[in-house]
C-alpha cells in the first residue's frame, strides 16, 4: 500500500462527488402548476371548451369521486384542479335549488291522441 491509500484520500473524492450531487439535486426548482388558483370556469375554458361547447351534461349523474378520478388521471394538471373542475361540472349539471327540472315537452299538442303499442280497439275473438 502507498502512503496516500493509508491517509484516506482515496475515500474522500467519491464522497465529495456524492455530496455535490445531493446538493445540486436538492436545489432544483420545483415544477410550477400553471392551473393553480384558477377558477373552475377558467379551467373549463382553457382545457375543455375546445372539444365541449358547454359544461352542461358532462357530469351525467356520475359519482363525484369517479368524475374527480377521471379528470385527475386524464385532463387536470393537479388533484386540486381536478377536484374544482369536478365540483363545477356537477354544479352545472344539477338543477338550481327549488326549481325542479322541466319534464321533456312533447311535440304534440295536449289534446292529441297518444300513441301506444296496443291497438286502439280490442281484437275480436275467433
TrEMBL record:
Q: Where is this region: Disordered?
A: 93-126
Concerning SUPFAM superfamilies, the annotation shows: Cytochrome c
Source species, domain of life = Bacteria
Q: Where are stretches of biased composition, namely Low complexity?
A: 94-116
Question: What InterPro entries does its record include?
Answer: Cyt_c-like_dom_sf
Q: What is this protein called?
A: Cytochrome c domain-containing protein
Amino acid at each position: 500500500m502507498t502512503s496516500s491509500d493509508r491517509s484516506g484520500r482515496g475515500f474522500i473524492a467519491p464522497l465529495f462527488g456524492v455530496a455535490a450531487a445531493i446538493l445540486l439535486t436538492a436545489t432544483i426548482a420545483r415544477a410550477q402548476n400553471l392551473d393553480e388558483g384558477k377558477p373552475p370556469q377558467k379551467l373549463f375554458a382553457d382545457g375543455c371548451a375546445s372539444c365541449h361547447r358547454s359544461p352542461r351534461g358532462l357530469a351525467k349523474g356520475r359519482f363525484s369521486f369517479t368524475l374527480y378520478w377521471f379528470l385527475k388521471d386524464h385532463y387536470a394538471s393537479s388533484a386540486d384542479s381536478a377536484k374544482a373542475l369536478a365540483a363545477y361540472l356537477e354544479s352545472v349539471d344539477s338543477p338550481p335549488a327549488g326549481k325542479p327540472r322541466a319534464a321533456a315537452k312533447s311535440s304534440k299538442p295536449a289534446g292529441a291522441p297518444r300513441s301506444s303499442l296496443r291497438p286502439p280497439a280490442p281484437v275480436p275473438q275467433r
